[in-house]
Each structure stands twice: as C-alpha cells, then as structure tokens.
Amino acid sequence: MLRDASESYLKIIRSTESMLEEIGVTKVINCAGTLTVLGGTTVDPEIIDSMKEIAGFYVDMPEFHRKVGEYLARIIGCESAFVVNGAEAGLVISLAACMTRGDLRKMTRLPDARGMRDEYIVQRLHRNMYDSNLRLTGATLVEIGGRSGTSEKDLERAINSKTAAVVYFVYDPQRGVLPLDVVCRIAHGRRVPVIADAAAELPPVENLTKFLKMGADLAVFSGGKDIGAPNDTGLIVGRKDLVDACMRLGPHSYESVGSQVRVFIGRPMKTSKEDVIAFVAAMKRYLRMDHAKRFVEWSRKTEYMVSELEKLGEKVRVIRSEAHQLGQLRPAGIPRIQVELVGGGLTAERLIRELKEGTPSIVAYSDDGRLGLSPQCLGDGEEEIVISRLKGIISRHERSS
C-alpha cells in the first residue's frame, strides 16, 4: 500500500516537473523557510490523496465547514475552529466578526462600517506589512505606543466605544511590547476582544492553544507553513460565538435579508472542498508527528552547514540563531545560522542573488545584513548542495578580487 502511494506520488512529481519545464518555471532549493512567496510548504502524499478523493464528489459546504470545525476543535483541544483560505483572510474575517458580532444588518454593510465599532488597535512595535489589510473591513487602524515600547496606559487610553478589537502580532520575545496576557486583561476589562496573529508560530505544536490560554479570544494560524497544508489555507481558533460569526461572514454563507439573499465580506476568500479536507489531513498528521525528531534533523543540517563553513577559516563568521536577537524571524524555535563574509566586499545581497541565479536555484534570505540560512524546508542532502554552492561563489570571488 505504501509502495503504491509512493509510486503514485513519484508519477505526479515527474508529470509536474515536465509541466514546469514546458511553462519555463524553475524549481528552487528552499533555505529560507515556509514563505508564501515560495509556495508555503511541500504537501505530503497522504494529504494529496485526500484531495484527490474528495475532488470526485460533492458536499454541502456550509455543513462541511461546521462539521470540520467541530472535529478540529476536538482534536486540537479548543472551543471552536474554522478553516479559511490563509492566515491573512483569517485576520480580516476575525476583525469583521468582532465588528458585527452576528448582527445581520451590519454584516451586509461591510466594508461600510459607519455607526459600528470600526477601530482596531495595534502596538507600534507590532506594525508590519500585513496589518493594513485589515482595513478591508472598513475599520481604521489605531497605533499605540512608540519605538521604545507600549505602556498599559497607552492601551487603556486607546480603547473607546468604537474599538472593535485589539490585534496582537506574535513576535515575542520583543523588548518593549506589552505582553499578550496584559493586553487581554486590559481589553477584557473593557469588553473588547483580542485577536492573536500566530500565522508562523508553529512549531511548537502547543502554540495551537497557547495564545487562547493566555487570554486571546481568537488566534489565527497559516495552514501552508509548518502544518503542511496547501499554501492557501489557514485556521481560526477560539471563542465559539466569534468563530460562529466568522463562519457566517465566510465564503459559503448565504442569508436572507428582507426579500434578498445576501453573501458577505468573506465571499472572495473562498475555500475549496479539496483545501478544507487537505487541512484536516494535514492537522491530523501534524498532531501525531514526532516533532522532537524533526528538531534533531534540523539541528543536524544546521551543524553540518556550520562545520563546513567554519572550515573556510577567518574569511567567514558564522553565528547560530541562539547567539543573536531573532526579531521577527518566525517561527522562533527553528535553528538558523547567519553567515558574514569578513572583508573582500562580498555582501549578503550578492550571495543571495548568486545563489538564486545559479543552478540549481537556491533561495536564502538577508538577516541583519548577513546571509541567513534555515534548515526547515531543506530536503535530504540539500544542505550539502547549499554549502557546495556557497563555497564555489566565495572561491570565485576570491580569484577575481
């Protein structure tokens, strides 16, 4: 059975490789992590099999979502859950739910948010490239605190009758940020819900419920990162009343408003039956996975890269992730290294460009002005290819200098 599945998967891979070649797309070795711009993650054969099977028949999508949510909540250990088409969509629908709270008239009006709670609060140190998309709901971003940090009074002063939610982007540890449990205490004292963006906060698997236990009303995760589901999936977990409101605003909801049948703000954020079942299969697999074994493998690949680069002597300085501030590199629990070329003028940006433009194409990232390497998405033996290419680039640069 396993052999048949493996052979079937190899046929799919060969067929896809041929199609990519026809289109003119190049596969890459991913040394950067589960990034959306690289397709998120690879999808296991058993997950693909679940997608193939459900593709051959129909289901009632609203009922499917409800039953899947109940099932996921049960196996994860949370109050309620809803599969969405990515973490960003999850954030938008979560905020919309906090703004409308199941009020049908308000639901039909979004993104016209006049007359309802139409502000969301974000700490200055949490500002990022994603927070402005929450304005799709019609809400206004209210920034609190400064570059040095946020105080409890900053949050207390910002909350008012127009506050729909406080949105907390999980980048901890981050100096100066008002911690999640403190944010929840203050917000809940004013009956304001807290949404935790935990898109890339796996591993560890315990984080699936950690932020809810800390007080967050809703937490949002990406499916296409460590969970191993397709890149266009995500998950909202949390309070049942708010998750129910998210489902009502979602892509498969139809409700009568007077003489009309209406859809809502989540309609463009459609999930297919194939994506939803794939997420279920991926979550089941994720929960039974040996995460300690994966960490050992990541550490082995990292140590191999460190030891090989250190053989270059004084030309290269290698820094393990534990030795520097991770900042917003997520998830924080995966070992990484920084590579700094000492002298010679070979910059991290040039190394990244040459790695990407070579054959095979290798994608790394810039980390605090140094070359960053992550083992999370490296296949068997790919760490050796990365190091071989790096050594070749450094050697060529030395000869031409």
CATH class of the largest domain: Alpha Beta
Q: What is the average of the pLDDT values?
A: 91
Number of domains: 2
- Overall geometry comes to globular
If you compute it from the alpha carbons, what radius of gyration comes out, rounded to the nearest whole angstrom? Answer: 23 Å
The total of beta strands comes to: 15
Count, helices:
13
Helix-and-strand structural type: alpha/beta
Task: Give the CA-CA distance, first to last residue.
Answer: 57 Å
CATH architecture of the largest domain: 3-Layer(aba) Sandwich
Low-confidence stretches: 323-327
What does this structure look like?
By secondary structure, this protein is of the alpha/beta class. It folds into 2 domains: 18-41 and 290-400, Aspartate Aminotransferase, domain 1 (Alpha-Beta Complex), CATH 3.90.1150.180; 58-288, 3-Layer(aba) Sandwich (Aspartate Aminotransferase, domain 2). It is 42% helix and 16% strand. It is built from 13 helices and 15 strands. Strands 2-8-7-6-5-3-4 form a 7-stranded mixed β-sheet, with helices on both faces. It has a 4-stranded antiparallel β-sheet with strand order 11-12-15-14, with helices on one face. Strands 1-13 form a two-stranded parallel ribbon. Helix 7 (180-189) links the parallel strand 5 and strand 6 (194-197). Helix 2 runs antiparallel to helix 10 and helix 4 (87-100) crosses helix 9 (240-249).
